[in-house]
Structures are given as structure tokens and as C-alpha cells.
Amino acid sequence: MLREGLSAFGGIGADTLLFTKLDEAASFGPLLAIGRDAGRPIGWVTTGQGVPDDLGPARDAGLPEKLLGS
User: Fold this and answer.
1) Alpha-carbon gap, residue 32 to 48, rounded angstroms
2) For residue 56, what are the β-bridge partners?
3) pLDDT tens sequence for the chain (70 residues)
4) Helix (H), strand (E), coil (C) string for the chain
5) Inter-CA distances, 30 with 5, 36, 39, 50, 51, Å
């Protein structure tokens, strides 16, 4: 599903990626692969159901720790 989204929206000229519903994700490793394939950093994430309140910079969501499993 992530690859289909990248294919569908990859040409819109976005500088960073936004991932939603991280609070429902079973794992975070695929995010790295999509970022690599897109050639763009993960800039924004949502971590809950309350958008825009749960929208924020990826660096503030503990993403590195989640990706590393710590």
C-alpha cells in the first residue's frame, strides 16, 4: 500500500514525506524503505486520530527510537 501511494503521488513535487496513523502501525521499518525509494526525508507524521492536533514533525514523534525498536 505504501508503494502504491508513492507511485500515485510521487510526482507532485513534495520535499518531504508525511505518514499518518503511526499509532496504528505494526512496524516502522517499511517507512525507511519508502523514504529511500522516494529520495525524500520523512518530515511529518500523525500519531493519533485528532488531526491536526496529532500532526507534527517526525523528529518530535520519537521516530528514530521507533525505527530502531528502542
Assistant:
1) 20
2) 45
3) 677 877 777 678 788 888 888 888 888 888 888 888 888 888 998 888 888 888 989 887 776 676 666 5
4) CHHHHHHHHHHHCCCCEEECCHHHCCCCHHHHHHHHHHCCCEEEEECCCCCCCCEEEHHHHCHHHHHHCC
5) 13, 10, 14, 24, 23
Tell me which residue has cell 508503494.
3
The residue written with cell numbers 514525506 in the block is 17
Contact indicator for 17, 35 with CB cutoff of 8 Å: yes
